[in-house]
Amino acid sequence: MRLDVVSIFPEYLAALDLSLVGKAAKSGLLDVRVHDLREWTYDRHRTVDDTPYGGGAGMVMKPEPWGEALDAVAPADGPSQPRLIVPTPAGRPFTQELAYELAAEPWLAFACGRYEGIDARVAAHAAERMRVDEVSIGDYVLNGGEVAVLVIVEAVARLLPGVIGNPESLSEESHSGDGLLEYPVYTKPPTWRGHAVPDVLLSGNHGLVAQWRHHESVRRTAERRPDLLAAWGAAVADKDDAVS
Ligand SMILES: O[C@H]1NC=Nc2ccccc21
């Protein structure tokens, strides 16, 4: 997979050279290219934003540098086009389902905008030749899209075949598999500062362990994410209906 990221803070994306994503890049599984938007500005101050039409606080990112940056990253007459992801608080929610969808793409491009946003014509113009998704990583305020790109890239890259050691671990995680939150995990020592590991986990009885883990997933989901529990319950009911 090829990943292009355009940002006015390219150094923010240095984290992509680390750990899992960095290893995937070194092994050739990922071709990560980070670009400085200011490369496509020509005035002395390398201006990338201006005041918003219609008034209001903050600044909006100008369309011209973005248009030229996207033309350079993905030429209109090129053999293929990337899927463009624009992180924004006004976007569709980023979910594990969308992560799987993006992991199937051969080429993703990310446009990192500042919180006030990029001139809306940039996405509209790009959509004339590539698929554009405006995506939010959550209902809170960031100052720019770079952090969101790091979140999205990590969630997507780890799904690529060969990126993480044991693909088994992908199935038992929160938000994948059965849709419940993951059960609590423990390792040695069996007692630590007066806190003991639940006996069932030391019993060697795999059936009891699986039962305990499922119960803990349901308990935790009910406690912390009743919305997910409702969806899970409905899915189980559908499955029961299907077999009855
Ligand atoms: O994903 C968003 N969540 C909240 N704020 C943002 C700001 C800029 C880009 C993206 C986001």
Overall description:
The chain is 36% helix and 17% strand. By secondary structure, the protein is an alpha/beta fold. It has 2 domains: 156 residues, SPOUT methyltransferase, trefoil knot domain (Alpha/beta knot); 71 residues, Orthogonal Bundle (Trp Operon Repressor, Chain A), CATH 1.10.1270. The strands form 3 sheets. Strands 2-1-6-5-7 form a 5-stranded parallel beta sheet. Helix 3 links the parallel strand 5 and strand 6. The longest helix has 19 residues. The chain is elongated. It starts with a strand and ends with a helix. The model has no long low-confidence stretch (mean pLDDT 94). The protein binds 3,4-dihydroquinazolin-4-ol. The site of 3,4-dihydroquinazolin-4-ol has 13 residues, from strand 5.
Notable traits:
alpha/beta, Alpha/beta knot, 5-stranded parallel β-sheet, two-stranded antiparallel sheet, 8 helices, 17% strand, elongated, binds 3,4-dihydroquinazolin-4-ol
Please report the first level of CATH classification, the CATH class of the largest domain.
Answer: Alpha Beta
- Summarize the amount of helix as a percent range: 25-40%
How does CATH name the architecture of the largest domain? 3-Layer(aba) Sandwich
Helix/strand/pairing class, anyone?
alpha/beta
What profile does the largest beta sheet have?
Answer: 5 strands, parallel
Strand content: 15-25%
- Give me the CATH fold name of the largest domain: Alpha/beta knot
Q: Which stretches of 5+ consecutive residues score pLDDT under 50? A: none
Overall pLDDT level:
94
Report how far the terminal alpha carbons are from each other. Answer: 43 Å
Number of strands: 9
- Strand order, largest beta sheet: 2-1-6-5-7
Radius of gyration: 22 Å
Ligand set? 3,4-dihydroquinazolin-4-ol
Shape: elongated
Tally of contiguous helical segments: 8
